[in-house]
Design goal:
Elements lengths: L1 E2 L8 E2 L22 E5 L1 E4 L2 E5 L3 E4 L11 E5 L4 E4 L33
Antiparallel strand pairs: 1-2, 1-3, 3-6, 4-5, 7-8
């Protein structure tokens, strides 16, 4: 498998399948976030390199930015409603979900409310 440098430069070997020729997928580490890479593949046997595949382009993404701090909207005896501002940086890929983490607080009343 051949990959370019992420700057539309020359290709180099990104994966050499000699150790496991039955493997037809791989992960390549050490790439630069938010970069476009061109990739192509060739089959190799004892006679040499076969035809090379068409190129495909892949885009690396980064971790999204921090969303706004959760704020209490309302509460009752069995639910709370919170809201927060969106992350302003999606890391180069649409945000597909937010995860809200909660922690139980002992006792009742405003004095026991903790900052998250």
């Amino acid at each position: 498998m051949y990959i370019d440098d992420g700057l539309d430069g020359d290709f180099s070997i990104g994966y050499d399948g000699r150790t496991n020729p039955s493997l037809v997928s791989t992960k390549i580490a050490g790439l630069v976030p938010r970069s476009i890479y061109r990739i192509k593949v060739a089959a190799v046997n004892k006679a040499g390199v076969g035809s090379i595949s068409d190129e495909t382009t892949c885009y690396t993404v980064a971790i999204p930015g921090q969303p706004g701090r959760p704020e209490l909207v309302s509460s009752s005896d069995n639910f709370i409603e919170v809201r927060w501002g969106p992350a302003f940086d999606d890391g180069g890929s649409p945000i597909k979900e937010y995860e809200l983490q909660t922690e139980a607080v002992e006792g009742l009343g405003v004095a026991n409310i903790e900052s998250w």
